[in-house]
Structure formats: structure tokens, C-alpha cells
Design a protein that fits this description.
about 270 residues, alpha+beta, six-stranded mixed sheet, two-stranded antiparallel sheet, about 35% helix
């Protein structure tokens, strides 16, 4: 199971906004409908995504057409997905406690029961070394398309995506659990500390949004315009316009067609 709790402030409080224990098979049940792969029954991962989504968005200050306020993500969805799946895949299943996902006013904490397995350390985990506690579970998650089983998610997804949002993820390992902390970022810090690995010429991206787009594409080369819009809290038209600018700068290219194609950061 997985316990999902949202608190209104920065500390645990009896008056939680939501407190749910989600209990379901780890992965969803898939079938074929009219020739395409279709989710028939939600698994634990899908149930958590649906339950958490309303709490992980915040209203923007500007009004859009129809007097609607733009909703901005508090954390990168890909980063949350990665740390929650890792918590489920690599937890110590001999312990009779649930994985915990706690949302506070300024951060998201994911607690996976059990010490790090074998000789694994936080430093090795960040470096991308693999030492799965539950290799069969990892194989199942890979077969269902939830993970790539390379053990690189923290280094190639979580860290760069959080940095692009102006924050640095924290990992705390004890004898009882691994705690992952994602803090809400500061756009000004994100722009100031953005990696300078892109082309250093006058054509290098100048805006925070452009740097965020590149970070999300590095983490997921097959990412769609729709997901980029959700992750950044911008309209798809804004995403398309900035992608065209990045392509014009020689920093981004598309390989393959609209379906099945991938982005490549140059």
C-alpha cells in the first residue's frame, strides 16, 4: 500500500487536507481495445497519480481566456513519478509499513521503508549505480513500461528536473527508511544556477522556460507538447513557439515523425 497525506502547513498536523491509504496491485491491468493498448483497471501508481494531481497544482496570478486562472505545477511530474516508483520498487517488503508520500506547504516527502540494500549509499545512488533489492519487481515494472531498469532515474531525471525548477532534491538514508525531499523551487534561482552546458554562443537559451524545456526533454526525449505544457504550466502555443526558437538556435532537433519520433538536445 501507499499512504498519501497532504498538510496545509510546513509540519504534520491532525487537520490534514487529505489522508488516504491506497491499496491496489502495483501495476495496472492493461488490455487491447480497438487495436490499441488500454488501461482497464488502475494500479497503485495510477491511483496515486489521480489522488495527488489536484494537490500538486497551484493557481497562477494571471487570468487566461474565459476568466480562467492558469494552474502551475508545484513540482515536476516526472520527478515525482520517479521517486514514488523507486520507493515502491526498492522498499523493504518484510516491513509491515506503507510507503508514505507527504505533501507540505513547501515540499513533498517520499518515505520508503527499509535501509538502503547491500552496500548502496546515497552517493552511489546519485551517481547512477544499481543495486536493486527486489529485482523481480523491477523487471515487472520495466516490462509494463514504468521504468527503464538502468538505475539512472535519480541522476538523469530527478536532479536535473528539480534544478530546472530552482531546487535541489535531498536524500536521507537511515536504518529504517530512505527519505526523499522535493522542495518548491525559486524561478530566479533556477535561471541563475541553470547548467551552462548548452552552446555558449549568443544563441544560448536566455529564458528560464527554454532551459526548463531542455531539461524536461533530456529527461524524456519522447515527451509531448501536452506534457511539456503541463510540467511548465504554460500554454501549448507558448511551448511550441519556444521550441521553434530552440530549434532555430541550433540547440534542439526532432528525429522521426510526429508519432514515434524523439527530441534531441544538441
Amino acid at each position: 500500500g501507499l499512504r498519501w497525506v497532504a498538510y496545509p502547513g510546513r509540519d504534520k498536523d491532525y487537520a490534514a487536507t487529505t489522508d488516504q491509504v491506497l491499496d491496489a496491485p502495483l501495476v495496472g491491468r492493461w488490455g487491447t481495445l480497438q487495436g490499441s493498448k488500454t488501461l482497464i483497471d488502475e494500479g497503485l501508481i495510477e491511483q496515486f497519480a489521480a489522488a495527488a494531481r489536484p494537490f500538486l497544482l497551484r493557481e497562477g496570478g494571471e487570468l487566461k481566456e474565459g476568466f480562467r486562472r492558469e494552474s502551475n505545477p508545484r513540482f515536476p511530474t516526472e520527478a515525482i513519478r520517479e521517486v514514488v516508483i523507486n520507493a515502491l520498487a526498492h522498499r523493504d517488503w518484510s516491513r509491515a509499513t506503507d510507503v508514505e508520500v507527504n505533501l507540505y506547504a513547501d515540499r513533498l516527502e517520499v518515505i520508503s521503508p527499509g535501509a538502503l540494500p547491500n552496500s548502496m549509499t546515497v552517493e552511489k545512488m546519485i551517481a547512477g549505480q544499481r543495486s536493486p533489492r527486489n529485482p523481480i519487481i523491477v523487471e515487472v515494472l520495466r516490462d509494463y513500461g514504468y521504468v527503464d531498469a538502468r538505475g539512472m532515474g535519480i541522476r538523469t531525471k530527478v536532479i536535473p528536473l528539480m534544478r530546472a525548477m530552482g531546487s535541489e532534491p535531498e536524500f536521507r538514508a537511515t536504518e529504517d527508511a530512505l527519505q526523499t525531499i522535493l522542495r518548491q523551487g525559486d524561478p530566479a534561482i533556477a535561471l541563475k544556477n541553470a547548467p551552462k552546458e548548452e552552446n555558449a554562443s549568443k544563441f544560448a537559451p536566455k529564458t528560464l522556460l527554454q532551459r526548463q524545456i531542455l531539461a524536461f526533454i533530456r529527461a524524456n526525449p519522447s515527451i509531448s507538447y501536452e506534457i511539456l505544457a503541463q510540467e511548465t504550466g504554460k500554454a501549448q502555443s507558448t511551448i511550441r513557439r519556444n521550441i521553434q526558437k530552440l530549434k532555430g538556435m541550433g540547440l534542439l532537433e526532432r528525429r522521426g515523425g510526429r508519432k514515434g519520433g524523439v527530441w534531441r538536445v544538441l
